[in-house]
Amino acid sequence: MNKPEIMLVGTFHMAMDPQKVNDQQKQIQDIVHSLKKFRPTKIAVEKSFLIEEELMRKYREFLNGDLAPAYDEVEQFAFRIAHELNLPQLHPVDEIVDMDSPSLNQVFEWAKEHQPELFKEILQVQSHLKKMEKGETVLDVLRYINDPDYIKELQRIYIKLARVGDRQHQIGVQWLKQWHHRDLAIAANIARIARPNDRILVLIGSDHLHLLQGFIKDSGDFHLPSVTSYLDT
Q1: Residues 183, 215: contact at Cβ < 8 Å?
Q2: Any alpha helices (H) in 99-170, and if so which ranges?
Q3: What is the Cα–Cα distance from 88 to 60, expressed in whole angstroms?
Q4: Is 27 helix (H, G, I), strand (E, B) or coil?
Q5: What pTM does this model have?
Q6: What is the rounded CA–CA span in Å between residue 100 and residue 178?
Q7: Which InterPro entries does the UniProt record give (predicted)?
Q8: Three-class DSSP category at 119
């Protein structure tokens, strides 16, 4: 019995750059064809089970030629890959977690006001990440956000956030508890849909990659092939 394969593909939120999506449809199609070579048996997406019915309604409309993909990474990538592979459904694996108690903005504001040196360290890491962001095309973005060095550097910010606050106000830790809750739930949701010999393609926001890789790998139940070779299109 072969272990299921889970390939995590970090994505960005396309709604933030609709012009790029419009201008680079040819490249998006090329990426779809490249990711299709993984031959996934299932595709998991960053959507909640609460909207599964709506997600499947849209997917059926897409299959019937009645829906043009929106500025959404699920519709631009997942719908097209699933269609070309004749997959009957998509699997929503996101978890709804209250990320505002405290909010990330409150964590940064605390650091800025009470821990200026730590806030400076965080900004320095963010600046380094910006320097690693090479290229402007959709493929360029997917390449650098899935690069192991970029993922490792991004994780440094989250670890530094744990130091925000004091013994009475663990504001950074409280926010990270919410973040870990969400990613651990996502990892569990992915694992639940896996069957022997499955090849699961997971399209997920790039900020989730580090924790998901660790949670899934640590179970020892799955193989985690890298997406890197599939982005050398």
Answers
A1: yes
A2: 104-114, 116-132, 138-145, 148-161
A3: 9
A4: helix
A5: 0.95
A6: 9
A7: DUF5694
A8: helix
- Distance from C-alpha of 39 to C-alpha of 142, rounded to nearest angstrom: 19
**Pair of tokens at residue 78:** 């997942």
Contacts of residue 70, Cβ cutoff 8 Å, sequence gap at least 6: 15
Q: Could you count the other beta carbons within 10 Å of the beta carbon of residue 51?
A: 14
In single-letter form, the type of residue at position 52 comes to: E
Q: Tell me which amino acid residue 205 is.
A: G
Helix (H) or strand (E) holding 19: helix 18-23
Lookup: tokens for 87: 């997959």
Distance CA 177, CA 189 (A): 18
3-state SS assignment for residue 136: coil
- Kindly list the distances between the CA atom of residue 150 and the CA atoms of 109, 127, 185, in Å, as whole numbers in the listed order: 25, 12, 24
Separation between Cα atoms, residue 135 and residue 157, nearest integer Å: 22
Residue pair 86/92 in contact (Cβ under 8 Å)? The answer is no
Residue-wise pLDDT for 88-103, tens only, equals: 999 999 999 999 999 9
Q: With b meaning 16 or more CB within 10 Å and e meaning fewer, what string describes 71-93? A: bbbbbbbbbbbbeeeebeebbbb
> Could you tell me which of 148, 82, 75, 157 has the C-alpha nearest to residue 121?
157
SS3 at position 146: coil
pLDDT per residue over 16-36, tens digit each? 999 999 999 999 999 999 999
